[in-house]
What we know:
Blueprint: H1 3-12, H2 17-38, H3 46-53, H4 57-60, H5 67-90, H6 96-113, H7 116-124, H8 130-151, H9 162-185, H10 192-210
Helix pairs in contact: 2-3, 2-5, 2-7, 5-6, 5-8, 6-10, 7-9, 8-9, 9-10
Keywords: DNA-binding
InterPro entries: Homeodomain-like_sf, HTH-type_TetR-like_transc_reg, HTH_TetR, Tet_transcr_reg_TetR-rel_C_sf
Protein name: TetR family transcriptional regulator
Amino acid sequence: MTASELDDGRRYRGAAPGQRQHERRIRLLEAATEAFGVDGYRNTTVTTICAAAGVGKRYFYESFTDSEDLLLEVYREIAAKMIEAIHTGLREGDTVDTQVRVGLTAYFQLIRDDPRIPRIAFFEILGVSPAVDRAYYDVLDALVDICLALITPHVDLETHPAVSVRTVLFGLVGAIVVIAQKWVLDAYRQPTADVVDSACLVVSAVLARIGPDTDRR
């Protein structure tokens, strides 16, 4: 029995098996977020993550099939945080312009506050496998859904059919992601407020072309 397995025994004695597995899974996800976000996915092994989590290696496979499966779960958790940050911002505004600004501010602030998030979401996730690429684009689709729900009441769908608007919004989301990636690569040198202003300008330019309401109330 390894030291980490002994540690598991001490830590979880008296807990139900399902609870023990759930808590080991959480610790593995936390350790993986730290490792992938600091050292990088390709520089991290299952052994390293298990050691950091204090979990015996044999327990890793009760929750994950391999390191790629773990990466996907970490990415989904991070993406959920990013989407929730945007949603929280959108709920605070009383006009589209305000909602966009508050939502983007929350998004960029989250990226600034925890550099592990953009490293995993923007860089480590890319080029791993077709399955991971699909997860990446699923998140982009989810962000497009948020944008579509926000602006549909303010869009002239007779002139711009929904399918065309969705295509435009996919490009818009991609532009915001690229702005965020560049900001991270530049070590956050540009103030957050300036980055938000730039992203809002891009959004406003698109809305000005597809929305019939100039004030977008």
